[in-house]
Automatic annotation (TrEMBL):
SMART domains: FBD. InterPro entries: FBD (IPR006566), FBL13/AtMIF1-like (IPR050232). Keywords: Signal. It comes from Thalictrum thalictroides (Rue-anemone). Residues 92-160 form the FBD domain. The keyword Signal applies. This is FBD domain-containing protein. It comes from the Eukaryota. Residues 1-20 form the signal peptide.
């Protein structure tokens, strides 16, 4: 298998649903040797288990890139999404290998902030997280992100504002 994989959880019809069902039913999923995983998705309740499954089955993951869909869905299942990340147990890549995270099209939505907090709290080898946002008025969110507990105290978190990446 290749060390690179681009997975579009929204564009591949039914992909996120299949992964989510597998996660919920605890069906075995083959482990991958992916070191660089690129996801294009949104952070809706139905996609979170699929994202978790991809992370769980990528124990050698070194770099994670998440390109969030530019559609903002304020308030959709916010409590479910927040509680979801709190319930996720240990993931091998977060314990041992993940060093770089890039998140594009960040809007400061509660579900996005919850994912950032989860990754910072769990990724023990994280060296750098770069968050790109098209918005310019995110100083309060940037300060909040910088205040999150980190599993890797040396990790750098950068937020680039006004960057129009699709």
């Amino acid at each position: 298998m290749s060390n690179f994989s681009f997975v579009n959880l929204i564009g591949i019809l039914g992909c996120a649903k299949v992964l989510s069902n597998m996660e919920m039913e605890m069906l075995p999923t083959p482990s991958t040797d992916w070191q660089d995983l690129r996801l294009k998705t949104d952070l809706t309740k139905s996609n979170l288990p699929g994202i978790t499954r991809l992370l769980r089955t990528s124990p050698n993951l070194y770099k994670l890139t998440i390109r969030l869909n530019s559609i903002v869905q304020s308030g959709v299942h916010v409590d479910d999404e927040l509680n979801y990340w709190n319930s996720v147990q240990s993931l091998p890549c977060l314990e041992k290998t993940l060093e770089y995270v890039n998140i594009y099209n960040f809007n400061g939505e509660t579900s996005e902030i919850a994912l950032v907090e989860f990754l910072l709290k769990k990724a023990r080898k994280l060296e750098q997280m770069i968050i790109y946002s098209k918005k310019n008025d995110m100083l309060a969110i940037h300060q909040k992100v910088l205040s999150f507990e980190r599993a890797s105290p040396e990790s750098a978190v950068m937020l680039y504002l006004g960057v129009g990446i699709v």
